[in-house]
Amino acid sequence: MVLLEVCIDDLAGARAALEGGAGRLEVCSRLDLGGLTPTSELVRALVAETKSPLFCMVRPRGGDFVARDDDLARSLDDLERVLDAGAHGVVYGWITADGRVDRDALRSLVARSRGVPATFHRAFEHVKNPVQELEVLIECGVRRVLTSGGAKDAHEGRHALRELVEAARGRIRILPGGGVRAHNAAGIVAATGVDEIHSSTVFAAP
């Protein structure tokens, strides 16, 4: 059975996702901005209501993924807040202006994540050499990377996703996301060999 992770930004969305068979929730605020750090109140409410894993976004602002000014400090504050609220996993990521994973920022975040699993989010779409940067994620202790393979959606990027799965060699999970829907999920899974998929909608995972 393939695990379906669904991103949500309120209790109603979480309830619908869980009733629809989601095996894990990516908990955010402001999905209209691509997902920002959720409120502590939402995380605590979900912890009280469900035993399903809650992976919380740690992203203090919308826009690009290049850390500047106080972005890292705000991310670290957000990280502490969602962990205190009961997050089972965290989702974050910063890159450099020249298209590399921001190794220093990532190391700081992983070091403060209290051992819970970390996902590098779709900032990864903007790195110049995905296979090379995958090694940086592994080195820093990231457990999975959410990506469409650099394409407009995961179905179009399924062959690039397969290359990442092969390069990962089981050291990090590749989590296809971006346009994953009921009509294409099985094809993405078959083409990539993944055992987890990510969507903003609910459907029976293949």
What does this entry look like structurally?
With 206 residues, the chain is an alpha/beta fold. It is 35% helix and 16% strand. The protein contains seven helices and eight strands. It has an eight-stranded parallel β-sheet. Helix 2 packs parallel to helix 3 and helix 5 (130-140) crosses helix 6 (158-168).
* Helix percent band: 25-40%
Query: Structural class, judged by helices and strands?
Result: alpha/beta
Number of strands: 8
CATH class: Alpha Beta
Number of discrete domains: 1
Major sheet strand order: 7-6-5-4-3-2-1-8
Structure characteristics:
7 helices, eight-stranded parallel beta sheet, 8 strands, alpha/beta, 206 residues, TIM Barrel
Give a quick rundown of the structure.
The chain has 206 residues and is α/β, with parallel strands linked by helices. The protein contains seven helices and eight strands; from the N terminus they run βαβαβαβαβαβαβαβ.
Layout of strands and helices, then pairs:
Blueprint: E1 3-8, H1 11-19, E2 24-27, H2 40-49, E3 54-57, H3 71-85, E4 89-92, H4 103-111, E5 118-120, H5 130-140, E6 144-147, H6 158-168, E7 173-176, H7 185-192, E8 196-199
Parallel strand pairs: 1-2, 1-8, 2-3, 3-4, 4-5, 5-6, 6-7
